[in-house]
Each structure stands twice: as C-alpha cells, then as structure tokens.
Design goal:
The structure holds two protein chains of two kinds. Helices cover 76% and strands 0% of the residues of chain A. By secondary structure, chain A is an all-alpha fold. Chain B folds into five domains: 138 residues, Ubiquitin-like (UB roll) (Roll), CATH 3.10.20.740; 121 residues, Alpha-Beta Plaits; 259 residues, Rossmann fold (3-Layer(aba) Sandwich), CATH 3.40.50; 198 residues, Dimethylsulfoxide Reductase, domain 2, CATH 3.40.228.10; 128 residues, Beta Barrel (Barwin-like endoglucanases), CATH 2.40.40.20. Chain B has 30 helices and 37 strands. In chain B, helix 14 runs antiparallel to helix 17 and helix 14 packs parallel to helix 20. Chain B is globular and about 90 Å long. The relative contact order of chain B is 0.10. The chains are: A mainly alpha, B alpha/beta. The structure holds iron/sulfur cluster (2 copies) and FE2/S2 (inorganic) cluster (FES). FE2/S2 (inorganic) cluster binds next to loops of chain B.
Chain lengths: 70, 970
C-alpha cells in the first residue's frame, strides 16, 4: 500500500475518534490493534519513525502507546 | 368443547402439507364451531367456510379461490348448502358462524357444479377436457371431480376460435399465444376470466400489469395496454400470475417443453438476501421448474424473476466441469484430474509460503456458498494456511453494519423478521432499492403501503418505492451522494430539539448520561435541516416533516442497504441510524427495528461464520483468549491472534510483493471490487491464484488453478438471509462437476496436511453449534422440523429469535454514538463535476455471471448510465448513445439513459456487465472503520463517445487469451 493511502486510512480512523467523548488516542490504538494486520502496522510504525509526516497527532500518539504495550 | 386443534400458524403458514386452503388464514382470538358434512370443526372467527372445510381435509371444488389471495367469488364452483339459508352460497366468500351446519356435496350442488364447468368447457375447447397431457391444470382436475365427460353446448360468441361456425373470420379472435416472455406463455384461448392472475399481480406482487379486456364471452386477461404483450407491459416476470392460473392459460415454457414434474424438494434461492424457499420440481434428474413455497417464512409463496426462472445457468454450456491448471496466466488452460489439480494447488501454495512466509497467502470465502462451506474455507485458512488472511464479499457491502450495529447494540444483524413489517406504520428506506434488489421484500413493503403505512425514502435516486402504480411515498429525501451522515443528523436534530424522543425508552434501555452527551451534540444548530439543506440537497421542510412522521409513528421501522454502508463514513451512518431508532423507542418489538438488507443470499451467513480476518465465528475477536482456545482445542492447532488482511489490504500487499497466493471461492473480484486496475495489478503479481467457481469469470483470467464449483442445486447446507433466518439448501441433483464445494475445500485441506473427515454438511453445522453460542441450538434436524429458524438459537431461545433486543440489548444498554459529519475526500471539481453512484437492477445479479447465462438478458442487455436531462443537454449526450465515463481512476464507455430519476449533478449506473467495466472508475477510498469501499460516491465526467476505451479493449483481449482451454490428453 502506498504511504499516502495508509496515511489517509489512519487519519480517517483518528478523525472519527476525535469526535467521541472517550480518549481518542486509546481508541485509535485499540482500533488499529483490532483491525490492522501486522505488515500494515509495521508500515505505519516505519512511517512514524521517519517523522510521521501527514499523520494526525492522535495516530502518532496511538502508535507510541501501541509500542509501549506491545 | 374444542374437538379440533387450530394449527399453529407459525409452523403451518398458509396450508397443511402445501395444500391450497382456498382463502387466507385469519388471525382472531375468537373461535367459532360449526359442522361441515357432519364433522365438528373449530376455527378462528372470520374464516371462510371453504377454509374451515379444508382444515378437516374436505377440499371443496374451486376455480377462482386460492389461499394467497382474498376471496373474489366469481366462478361459483365452490357453492355449498347451509341449513336454514336460502340458495347455494359460495363457500369462499361466506364466513363461518357459530353452530352453522354446512353440506358441501349434495345432489343439487353437484348438478350445479357440473353445469358451471360444462359452460366454461364449451367456451374454452382449448383447455382440452380429458387431455392427459396437461395434468397441471386445476380446471381439468375440477372437471374430473364433477364428473364432466362431454360438453353438450355449441360455443357462444368468443375470442377462442379463429373462425366462426359459418367459416367467416372471428373478429373477436386475439391472434393466439403470447410468447414474448422468455419463461412462460399466455394462451388467451384458455382464459376463463377468473381474475386470479390480475389479483396476484395487484395484491401480491404490486405491479398492476394486467387488466381484463372485452365483455361477455369475449372477456380475457390482457397484459399492459392494447398494443402491449407481456414483455412490453410493466410485467416484472415474478411468476405470481402463472402460479395461480387455474386453466394452464398461463404456463411455464419448461413445463410445455419437458412435461410435468414427478417429485419436489424444498430448497432456498441462491440469489438475494431475501432467501425465498422454493419447491424444486424435478423430472428424473432434470429440474423442470422452481415454484415458490407457500410455507417459506421469508417469501410465503412469492418470488421474483431471478429465483423463479433464472436458474438455467446451472446447465449452461460455459460451466467448467473439469479441474484445470496452467503455469502462466497467458498459457491456455490444461484439463487435469482432481488429484493433479489439488496436489498442484497444495504444492504451489506451500511453495509460496516457503518462499515468502506463512502470511503470504490467504483466501476469500463466498457469500454465495453455504454456511458450512464458508465455515470450512475460513477454517482452511486459519488452521491449515496458518494465518488469518480470510475475507468475504461482505467486506465490500455490509462490513460497516457489522461494526456500526455491533457498537450500538452489541451484535451485527438486522433486528427483525420480514413479517414484522405487517405491524409497521412508518418506514424509512435508506440507500436501498428493494423492488429491484430484494424484490419479494419490496412487494411486501408495497402491500403494507397499500394498507396505509407511510413511507420515507432517503436515496439520491427516485426509486420505484417513491412512486409507482398503487403507491406513493410520503417523503423522498434525494440526498446528495456522500452526505448520509449529515441527513441522518438533521433528522435526529429535529427529533431531539422538537421533544419527540421516547424518554422512557432511553432511560430504561440506554445509557441516559451518554444520551445527554449525544443530545448536547445533536441539538447544536449546525445539525439543523436549515443549515444542512445546501449540503445535502434536501429542503429543510422535507427533513422536518419526515423526522416528525417517523418519530410520532406508533411503529417506525428502518431498512437500509449499501447506499448507507458503501461510503467513507459508512459505519458512522449505521450508528446514526441506530441512534434514530433508539431515541424514538423503535426497537425490541414487532413492526420496528433497524434492518440491513443484505445483497447476496448468504452475506449474513458468511459474516456469521467467521469470514472476516479479525474475528472467529459468531463475531468474536481473535484476541479473545477463551474463544481462540475453544477453536484451538476443537481444531487441534495453534491460531494466530493477529488480525489478517482484508481483501483490499491483500491486493495492496500483493502489489507490494508480500502477498503471493490465494484461494478464491465463488467470487469475481475483478468485476465486483472497486478500482479494477488495482485489482488486476494485485492479481497479476501473485504466483498462485486458485479459483473455485462455476465459470471462467474475470478473476479467473488471472488464475493458475481452476477447481470447478457446484451450484446450489447440487449440495446440502444452509443459507442465512437478511432476517438471520437459517434456511435449508437441499441437493436436488448430483454435482455435475463431481463434488459439492465443501467436499472440494475438504480435499484441498487434506492434501495440505489436514485430517478432515466430514461426510455430510450437517456435521459441519454441528461443529458450528458446538463452538458458537448464538448457534448452540442449531442442527439440520431442528431446521428440518421447523422449516427454518432465526439465530440466536440456544437454550434461551430454543426455536430461534424473530425479533432481537427485546427487553435488553445484546450489549446490555443501547449506546448513543456521536456521528459528526466528515466529508469524503472524493470531491467534484472542474475536471470531474458529476457524482456517480451505483446500484443494481431487478433482472441481473451482481457480477452477472449467473443471470447473463439466462434469458434474463432480454430485460437488461448492458449497464446503462442514468443522467439527468439537464446534464445530458449541456454535454450533448443523446439518449441511447455511447458516452465516456471518466474518473481520476480510469474510464469506460456505456450507453446513456436520460431520465429525471436522478437529480442534476448525479449520474447512476449498475455493475453487472463485464463489457461495461463500471468499477474501473470507482475509487480506492473506503469506510474509515472497515475498509468497505466507497462505491457510492465517485466524481466523474461524462462526454459523448464513439466506442470502447482502450482498457475495455485490453480486457476483452486478455479474456480471450486467458480463457483458452486445451482438453485433457486422452
Ligand atoms: S409475472 Fe408477476 S408482474 Fe408479471 S403479470 Fe404476472 S404477476 Fe404481474
Ligand atoms: S432473488 Fe431474492 S427475492 Fe428473488 S426469489 Fe431469490 S431470494 Fe427471493
Ligand atoms: S372458488 Fe368460490 S366462487 Fe370461485
């Protein structure tokens, strides 16, 4: 998948959870854990490692949290 | 004292053992006892004498009565004598009364009946009394029963003969048999003007295609207007008129050609998510006709053109019956034995795994196959491939339903049974077109509308439910594609700000604090219909009117389809719909609810069976240790707890080079999935694609191994329809390819090292029941006993659950979710100023591989682009001419149909035909939660064109090369 497509998909998830009353970062992390396959997550992590350009803040925060609990 | 037990209508539907009871069942608390031919009988008050007699096995002769229609009383054959009453009343129109004494067969009655039949016979010699060739006609049966052997009268003036007795041409003659419909014929010479067909068309189907023409002896039925025949009339070929015709005037062509069937087996239609039950009527191993089964709980004896007539593909010459293999997709296919094909498939899939890793292969289960087959395919992937790369076409249609309703209510399924609509006062139909895509349910909706129910349609297109003969919706909200969430919020805004909520329901059944938060969100003026009118294209007063109508209904029901789910915000829209139902208390009883209309016959089932990469059967996430361990114990393997790839992710990974092999059962992703070029690129980069299907479809052009599939007529199993109803599929003939699909999957698994030994699909269902709480009570035996049943079926609900969330939601309290409108990134602009949305038409089915191999093509030869007259004019587009349809993804050509069904700025088409390649233009945007593709919104441009695009030509060439077959060396 292109990084562009991945960023688009991740940001869509963040955009939804940003509107919810719960902690968006936790919700994004949970959603990614539940529905994204390992190589998709790996691509996301790699992009974050390169600075995470284009990614929504809560996606970046979610990735940090996912790595901590992994 | 009651000496006869009233049959439970839940199990006996409209007749005992399929017998025609003459008039419909009556629902009444009061009972009446009477005597018929000396037998005491007790029936619900309001029942006809005819039906009362039928309940004790007395079959009063009848021509114009049938239990699927209200009595009409025109033939006078059914008369009886009643003590204390004068004359001979018709038993079909006479209701029972307490202590009535009825005689159904006296000398006087028999004499009159014989006279009635004799008169009909004399005027209709074509019916051929005593002609054994056509034992299918009720008329002949009645003639035999009243003892008519000869006709004493000369025919009067009529429309039957070409010439009169004096040899002159008969001016009333009507030119003979109408053979315009490909599936049945109408011979006016046999029409006795009983009106049954007209009433079936009006009252059951709701199409109003037929009328009675002429007077006196000249009277007969006529399809459409004076110059019409069946094909040019409004007829949608549902077959209801053919079924009720008592004389054989309307007759299936197959019966005329093959002769009468000898045995019948009850099974389930394999087309749409209605799940109609049919009697497959057989002569030897040959299917003669499919007749909708009266006791089928989804269809009650009705059907549509697809299920009733479009099954000829099962015997089509294009069907592939021998396994085939090849090295490269440019090679011709080589026919081989099953052993060779399976061991090659196993060897190559394992080789891919060795080279690229365990997760480099996966598969697709089919929503057209049975629950048992689907379960086995996901088991093959999880337990034998050793990963979770399983998905199904449910991904591209209703995955947002799974997510959205799961979040709101706790489970992914419609809340109601279809019969529930008989209690509905106000409907919202959103993004669904039931009269085309779920025709039998569409007819049921129309019946309820004619009984007075109100209708709100939310759809960019003016579908038939907005207005057609006999019905008119109260509101049509022609929402601009992509703004569903906004329109749902506008409705909710009106309901909450105008105080139309059901506070008791919300306090008792939902989380009140959560609702408070939601109310604060939704009452904000940015959600008001006035504020959103420009965005959604729907005037504020229309939204307000619709919201008030739904909120104040005694029973309001919402049904929705892919027009809701197939969007970037598909899941959010589903949550919004759930909110509407909760805030108005429209859940948990008959007549209300939130119900997705599923596209294919077994989408519900394939989702239930664990086809999705993140969850095991019964919607339980892989990360749930208890569930995973249950399956690990049952299957004797360790399972991966990481979710697998979804279909679009698989194709992405294929393009990236990390996904290299697939087993695809019964799906044509080249035709049905969005962004065809991307699909092609993904498939092309794989090293082993195994297709298990009936035909060489577009996806098989990219395959290396072809395993022939079997049709629904050739196997046992179950399908689960949109109501969660588990229906039996029964084998009516041997698989022409040698094996049912579940057997093929099992053989593949075993060649790959598994040790499966199922000998019948019922054992697979037993395994499902043993592992899945909502199926705990399900077994083939129970389904056979009850006819069908709706999950959940377990200790708490031993015979299944027609209505869900009664008293409590599956998740406990109903959950209100915030549904902020977030526009899709697919936007119109100067290059692509129009919005394309897609759908289906009645006579075709999905990728068209089945229906295009039947005579259904007479109704829809190719996909058409609907465009508003204004948009057509400014582009110089002429009706019926070819146009070029382009998006940022690709372009294709098809013919234009100029119509104001679509609003200016919106164009519409279907995706049934491979030559038209509609999905070349659709994008890779998808639902935020589930990756369900955004088929319903594509920014496009339309311009006149004079021929196929380069892509269409490449595809046609590719298909030609890819579909060459070399026969096996002898
Ligand atoms: S086939 Fe159906 S739609 Fe056509 S005339 Fe008969 S009842 Fe009406
Ligand atoms: S296609 Fe649907 S409505 Fe038509 S007969 Fe089959 S299940 Fe019934
Ligand atoms: S069956 Fe009763 S009048 Fe025809």
């Amino acid at each position: 998948m292109t990084d562009e497509k991945m960023i688009h998909m991740a940001n869509q998830i963040a955009a939804f959870f940003e509107t919810q009353p719960e902690d968006a970062v936790a919700a994004v992390a949970d959603h990614l854990e539940k529905f994204w396959e390992a190589r998709m997550k790996a691509q996301l992590y790699a992009h974050v490692d390169r600075g995470g350009k284009g990614l929504h803040d809560s996606v970046i925060a979610a990735v940090t949290r996912m790595r901590e609990t992994a | 004292m009651k000496d006869f037990i009233i049959p439970d209508p839940r199990y006996y539907g409209t007749g005992l053992d399929g017998a025609d009871m003459g008039t419909p069942a009556v629902d009444s608390d009061q009972v009446v006892t009477l005597s018929i031919d000396g037998f005491a009988v007790t029936v619900p008050a309001g029942t006809s004498v005819m039906r009362a007699a039928a309940t004790i096995g007395i079959d009063i002769p009848k021509l114009c009565a049938t239990d699927t229609l209200d009595a009409f009383g025109s033939c006078r054959l059914c008369l009886v004598e009643i003590d204390g009453r004068k004359g001979t009343p018709a038993s079909c129109t006479t209701p029972v009364a307490e202590n009535m004494v009825v005689h159904t067969s006296t000398e006087r009655i028999n004499r009159i009946r014989k006279g009635v039949i004799e008169l009909y016979a004399s005027d209709h010699p074509a019916i051929g009394i005593g002609d054994p060739a056509n034992g299918d006609s009720r008329f002949q049966e009645m003639a035999a029963r009243v003892g008519l052997r000869e006709v004493r009268y000369e025919p009067g003036a009529n429309h039957v003969f070409t010439h009169g007795p004096n040899g002159a041409e008969n001016p009333l003659h009507d030119g003979g048999v109408d053979r315009s419909n490909p599936y049945f014929s109408y011979d006016p010479a046999k029409c006795i003007a009983c009106s049954l067909c007209i009433r079936a068309c009006d009252d059951i189907q709701g199409t109003f295609a037929l009328t009675m023409e002429g007077r006196g002896f000249d009277t007969r039925m006529s399809a459409g207007g004076a110059d019409d025949n069946y094909l040019t009339s409004d007829c949608v070929s549902c077959g209801a008129c053919v079924q009720v015709c008592p004389t054989g005037s309307l007759q299936e062509n197959a019966v005329i050609e093959i002769g009468l069937p000898e045995r019948e087996i009850i099974t389930t239609c394999a087309y749409c998510g209605v799940g109609c039950n049919f009697k497959a009527e057989m002569k030897g191993d040959q299917l003669v006709r499919m007749v909708p089964w009266k006791d089928g709980k989804a269809n009650h004896g009705h059907s549509c053109v697809k299920g009733r007539f479009a099954w000829g593909y099962a015997n089509h010459g294009d069907r592939i019956l021998k396994p085939m293999i090849r090295d490269r997709i440019t090679d011709p296919w080589q026919e081989v034995s099953w052993e060779v094909a399976l061991s090659e498939a196993a060897r190559r899939l394992r080789a891919v795994q060795e080279k690229y890793g365990r997760t480099s292969i996966g598969g697709l289960t089919s929503s057209r196959c049975t629950n048992e087959e689907t379960y086995l395919v996901q088991k093959l992937i999880r337990a034998v491939f050793g990963n979770n790369n399983t998905d199904t076409c449910g991904r591209v249609c209703h995955s947002p339903t799974g997510y959205g309703l799961g979040q709101a209510f706790g489970t992914s399924a419609g809340t109601q049974d279809f019969d529930s609509v008989e209690h509905t006062d106000v409907f919202i139909i959103m993004g669904a077109n039931p009269t085309d895509a779920h025709p039998v349910f569409g007819s049921k909706l129309k019946q309820q509308m004619r009984r007075g129910a109100k209708m709100i349609v939310i759809d960019p297109r003016r579908i038939d439910l907005v207005q057609s003969t006999g019905i008119k919706a109260d509101y049509h909200l022609p929402v601009r594609p992509g703004t569903n969430v906004a329109i749902v919020s506008a409705l909710a805004h009106v309901i909450v700000t105008e105080g139309l909520i059901d506070e008791d329901f919300i306090r008792n059944r939902c989380d009140w604090d959560e609702f408070q938060h939601y109310a604060e969100f939704i009452t904000d003026p940015r959600h008001s219909p006035e504020n959103l009118a420009e965005l959604t294209g729907v005037p504020a007063d229309v939204v307000r009117g619709a919201a008030r109508l739904y909120a104040t209904a005694k029973n309001g029901a919402i049904f929705y389809g892919l027009g809701v789910t197939e969007h970037s915000q598909g899941s959010t829209a589903v949550m919004g719909i759930a909110n509407l139902a909760m805030m108005t208390g429209n859940l948990g009883r008959d007549g209300v609810g939130v119900s997705p209309l599923r596209g294919q016959n077994n989408v519900q089932g394939s989702c239930d069976m664990g086809s999705f990469p993140h969850e095991l059967p019964g919607y339980r996430h892989l990360s749930d240790d208890v569930t995973r361990e249950l399956f690990e114990d049952m299957w004797g393997v360790m399972l991966d707890k990481e979710p697998g790839l979804r279909i679009n992710n698989m194709l992405d990974a294929a393009v990236d080079g990390t996904f290299k092999g697939m087993y695809i059962q019964g799906e044509d992703i080249m035709q049905s999935d969005p962004d065809t070029r991307h699909v092609a690129a993904g498939l092309e980069s794989m090293e082993c694609v195994v297709i298990h299907d009936l035909f060489l479809n577009g996806t098989a052009d990219f395959a290396h191994i072809f395993l022939p599939g079997s049709t629904f007529l050739e196997k046992d199993g179950t399908f689960t329809n949109s109501e969660r109803r588990i229906n039996r599929v029964r084998k009516v003939m041997e698989p022409k390819n040698g094996y049912a699909d579940w057997e093929v999957t099992q053989m593949l698994a075993n060649v790959m090292g598994a040790d499966w030994s199922y000998t019948h699909p019922s054992q697979i269902m037993d395994e499902i029941a043993a592992t899945t709480p909502s199926f705990a009570g399900v077994s083939f035996d129970l389904i056979d006993r009850l006819g069908s049943l709706q999950w959940p079926c377990n200790e708490k609900a031993p015979e299944g659950t027609p209505v869900m969330h009664v008293g409590e939601f599956v998740r406990g309290k109903g959950r209100f979710l915030i549904t902020e409108y977030i526009p899709t990134d697919e936007k119109t602009g100067p290059r692509f100023p129009l919005l394309l949305t897609t759908g289906r038409t009645l006579t075709q089915y999905n990728a068209g591989v089945q229906t295009q191999r039947t005579a259904n093509t007479v109704w829809y030869e190719e996909d058409l682009l609907e465009i508003h007259p204004h948009d057509a004019e400014v582009r110089g587009v002429r009706d019926g001419a070819y146009v070029r349809l382009a998006s940022r993804m690709g372009e294709t050509t098809l013919r234009a149909l100029i119509t104001d069904r679509v609003s200016p700025g919106v164009v519409y088409t279907t995706f049934h035909h491979a030559t038209n390649q509609t999905n070349v233009v659709t994008t890779d945007y998808s639902d935020w939660a589930t990756n369900c593709p955004e088929y319903k919104v594509t920014a496009v441009q339309v311009s006149p064109s004079n021929g196929p695009t380069e892509w269409q030509e490449t595809q046609a060439r590719r298909a030609e090369i890819a579909r060459r077959v070399l026969p096996a060396a002898e």
